[in-house]
Write a structure and sequence with these properties.
Helices cover 38% and strands 13% of the residues. It is an alpha+beta fold and 534 residues long. Strand 3, helix 2 and strand 4 form a beta-alpha-beta unit.
């Protein structure tokens, strides 16, 4: 889903794990994570610990996303395998996209008995790990997930390692996926309309404005970004001006720096770039590039492309592929193009391996068995294929090459008796196990991926952990100011840009934005100092 690029990312602010990786039985740095129940391990003739599965257990797992209509059928088949191989059953739950943030926080703060949960840098993995919401895994992994322990790279384990309140030297709090990706944002747009209207190829903000203007004038009734357009406007601001967010990227994160000068950390509403941008957005709003109710709209711009009422949609590169390939089925008459925003500044950053991962909440009753299941899921094709692609013959078949996925399987028709089995399986993906190409097989993606790799720079931002613990009240006040004054200003919903900008800046100052900047600098500099980043 969201966002990762994982293989090429920078090492986070954690200890080096060379000693840990050389050890076969755990890591002293993390402290002991030995099972509470001594019956959960046994000792073989050589004196080594071996997993004991004599007691049947039921595990509770949570994934972020939506279940498929056949998910329970698939889980039933999964449980048949688990009962036979590991004397285990799993109850699989979902925190849907509508509720995930609230539900996720509740799970990790109330002590709900959960044995495994999807974890991600975009879902505050580093924050929760720093607070010891997850269980340290250093001692458990070599015993209960030995194949995973040996196959995951040293760098990926380092990226999953966090210094926490209880693990001052750092501990592994999640098992990262090993599926390298690049996910810069970009715009899907109507390439057929661009050619029909003889508009310039999209290369920068000027050509993008010409495209929007041409569509607005040449396609009566069409709104270029139709629906909730703030995501597009916000992403365009940051990318076109070369700003990278400090400490994660919610839309209200106003603390940024530029890659060439990462220590020059500022609140972007006070920059000259922001002033120029909001003045430009005022002209875009006046031209009707989005609707006046855009901030309250629940309409996805991507849906309006399908109905010939919209012309642009913000998607990261892999998600763009999924959307575009879907259009080929639902709207084969539409031809789209894609402009990745990394081209504004000539570089792409990979996401961290822990952009998609699986973690064990500290409240888990059965962490050992849960790791055993994950080890199977990541390394046994029967398990991986079932929980990633569904039931063979019902949701997919395997091509004659013995590897490639065929969907729908023979005899089934899309939309009639078949729907792609699309589970939230990002947390256990392994590149050697995956049967599908990235970006849903979008033919253009391979070329884009080569472009991203050729311009790749280490991700020096994703590992920075900001919890805002010491500035909670200021953060809440700044967020309120952003919603009340910042969003309308960025959307051009003002009669006087300069007056609205002054009001926004004044309100941010009163709310305590300077305290947030100072806090971000302190935390970022700790990481930069450790890694020698100037």
């Amino acid at each position: 889903m969201k966002r990762k690029l994982r293989k090429y990312s920078a090492i986070p602010a954690v200890i080096m794990l060379s000693t840990m990786l050389a050890a076969c039985g755990g890591n002293d740095n993390a402290g002991s994570t030995t099972a509470n129940d001594p019956a959960k391990t046994a000792t073989n003739e050589e004196g080594a610990k071996t997993p004991d599965t004599s007691k049947k257990v039921e595990l509770v797992w949570y994934l972020v996303g939506e279940p498929h209509k056949d998910t329970q059928k698939v889980v039933d088949e999964w449980n048949k395998l688990l009962e036979k191989d590991l004397n285990t059953k799993i109850k699989l739950n979902f925190t849907t996209w509508a509720e995930w943030q609230t539900k996720y926080n509740l799970i990790l703060s109330t002590g709900e008995k959960v044995d495994m949960i999807f974890a991600s840098s975009w879902a505050d993995y580093y924050k929760f790990a720093k607070r010891d919401a997850f269980l340290p895994l250093n001692d458990l992994l070599p015993v209960y997930a030995p194949e995973t322990w040996s196959k995951v790279s040293k760098q990926d384990w380092e990226e999953a390692t966090v210094k926490s309140d209880k693990a001052a030297n750092g501990a592994i709090f999640a098992v990262p996926s090993t599926y390298p990706e690049y996910t810069p944002d970009g715009l899907v747009y109507r390439e057929d309309w661009r050619k029909e209207l003889n508009l310039p190829e999209i290369k920068d903000m000027d050509s993008l404005e010409a495209y929007f203007d041409g569509v607005k004038k040449g396609k009566p009734g069409v709104t270029p970004i139709n629906g909730k357009a703030f995501n597009e406007v916000n992403a365009l601001f940051k990318f076109s001006n070369g700003f990278e967010t400090i400490g994660g990227g919610g839309e209200g994160n106003l603390i940024v720096s530029k890659y060439a000068t990462p220590r020059d950390i500022v609140a972007y509403p006070f920059t000259a770039e922001f002033e120029a941008y909001v003045k430009r957005m005022k002209t875009w709003a006046d031209k009707g590039f989005w609707n006046s109710d855009s901030l309250s709209s629940q309409k996805e711009p991507g849906d309006t492309i399908k109905t010939d009422n919209g012309a642009a949609y913000l998607r990261n590169a892999p998600a763009a592929g999924g959307y575009i390939m879907g259009l080929k089925t639902t709207n084969p008459d539409i031809t789209t193009g894609y402009f990745p925003f990394n081209r504004f500044n000539g570089y792409a950053m990979p996401t961290l391996s822990v952009n998609n991962a699986m973690a064990i909440p500290k409240s888990s009753p059965n962490p050992e068995r849960s790791l055993m299941v994950l080890d199977k899921l990541r390394n046994d094709p029967k398990y991986f294929d079932l929980m990633t692609y569904g039931i063979e013959g019902t949701h997919y078949s395997i091509d004659a090459d013995g590897k490639s996925l065929v969907t729908p399987p023979a005899g089934m028709t899309v939309g009639k008796d078949w729907k792609k089995y699309d589970l939230a399986s990002w947390g256990w993906r392994v590149d050697t196990m995956v049967r599908e190409k990235q970006a849903s097989g979008w033919p253009e993606f391979d070329k884009l991926l080569e472009e991203f790799k050729a311009t790749s720079k280490p991700n020096i931002y994703a590992p920075i952990i900001l919890t805002y613990d010491t500035v909670k009240s200021q953060q809440a006040a700044v967020n309120q100011v952003f919603e009340q004054y910042g969003k309308p200003l960025m959307m051009g919903f003002t009669d006087d840009v300069e007056k609205s900008l002054k009001t926004y800046r004044d309100q941010l100052t009163k709310a305590g934005i300077d305290s947030l900047v100072d806090y971000a600098k302190t935390e970022a500099y700790k990481y930069f100092d450790e890694k020698g980043i100037q």
